[in-house]
Amino acid sequence: MRSMVEGPDPDPVDADFRLHRFAVPLPRRGRTMQQTLKIERLKSRPQFLAAAKGVSQARGAVVVQRLDRRDGDPVTRVGFTATRKIGGAVVRNRAKRRLREAARALVPLHGLPGSDYVFIARMGTADRPWERLLDDVKSALTRLATPRTAPEDAPPASRPPTSAGQDS
Q1: Exposed, middle or buried by CB within 10 Å (0-12, 13-18, 19+), for 88?
Q2: Which of 60, 71, 105, 165 would bridge 136 by S-S if both were Cys, CB 3.0 to 4.6 A apart?
Q3: How far apart are CA 127 and CA 47, in angstroms?
Q4: pTM, rounded to two decimals
């Protein structure tokens, strides 16, 4: 047991987010437990705007945006935002803290290397039960991780039909 003179044991999760970088084991997609996914924070406005040009999924109390950088760098970058629309500073900060913790737990398991993720808090993020928030984040991440394919029975996209009686 540590003595009170030495001070409390620092929380490694908070220290990792303060450093804006952490590494955790990856148990899926053919990666072994010894391999680690390096995660960094998105910090500048242009990074957030670039991620907004990627694909997004809205699930319950969270919207997750993902941009595949295609730059060959396996680092996954993660950013968090909450607008004033969801509440005052206390509510926004609480929502972002909850999203950071959910991302810390789920991005290493369901995120893709070489991607930028932006987690956007919605109205219920600060008050949503923890299990439901985790489920929202997990379902959004898994949906973003699966590649989209066109349905087999859908006709190829074509120009809309024109009226036979109109002159061009």
Answers
A1: exposed
A2: 60
A3: 28
A4: 0.69
